Amino acid sequence: FVFMVRETSQMFITGPDVVKAVTGEEITQNGLGGADVHAETSGVCHFAYDDEETCIAEVRYLLSLLPQNNRETPPVESSDDPPSRRCEALLDLVPADGNRPYDMRRVIEELVDDGQFIEVHERWATNVICALARLDGQVVGIVANQPMSMAGVLDIHASEKAARFVQWCDAFNIALITLLDVPGFLPGVDQEHGGIIRHGAKLLYAYCNATVPRIQLILRKAYGGAYIVMDSRSVGTDLSFAWPTNEIAVMGAEGAANVIFRKRIAEADDAEAMRASMVKEYKAELMHPYYAAERGLVDDVIDPAETRGVLSRALHMLRAKHAELPVRKHGNPPQ
Question: Are residues 25 and 86 in the same domain?
Answer without folding.
Answer: no
